[in-house]
Amino acid sequence: MPETMIALTIYSKPGCHLCDDMKAIVDRVVRTSGLSIGIEHVDITTDPDLEARYGLEIPVLLVEGTKIAKYRVTEAELRRALRARAGEAG
After folding, report:
1. Is the CB of residue 60 less than 8 Å from the CB of residue 69?
2. I want to staple 61 with a disulfide (CB 3.0 to 4.6 A). Which of 6, 48, 65, 69 is the partner?
3. Helix boundaries (H) for the chain
4. Which domains are assigned to the chain?
5. Among candidates 81, 71, 87, which has minimal Cα distance to 22?
6. How do residues 34-63 score in pLDDT, each as one tens digit?
7. Whole-structure pTM value
């Protein structure tokens, strides 16, 4: 049975140091998790609706469409969320 891919989405914008920090944490966790994970990076400056929705909250991290963090996420928090999602899928 093929492993289900977990979808992560990061809403961010260029020049945002919190966004860069979150992307680094996500990349590190994904690289070492052993899970099948896809990451979509969304630049909110390309869409006025996204800027209006997320402009004051970025970065925002979604796992399978559910917001799990804004501003910051720790490696431990993300690993817990991914393990929970992988458990649901398995």
Report:
1. yes
2. 69
3. 17-33, 48-54, 75-89
4. 6-89 (3.40.30.10)
5. 71
6. 999 999 999 999 999 999 999 999 999 999
7. 0.91
Cα–Cα distance between 9 and 2 in angstroms, integer? 22
**What does the alpha-carbon distance between residue 62 and residue 37 come to, in Å, rounded to a whole number?**
12
Q: Using N-to-C axis directions, what is the helix angle for 75-89 and 17-33, rounded to 10°?
A: 50
Can you give the pLDDT at residue 86? 87
- The DSSP bridge partners found for residue 70 are 60
- Strands in 37-43's sheet, in edge-to-edge order, are 37-43, 6-12, 60-63, 66-70
Q: Residue 38 and residue 8: Cα distance in Å, rounded?
A: 6
- Confidence tier at 89 by pLDDT (50, 70, 90): low
Band of residue 1 on the pLDDT scale cut at 50, 70, 90: very low
Cis peptide before 2 (omega within 30 of 0): no
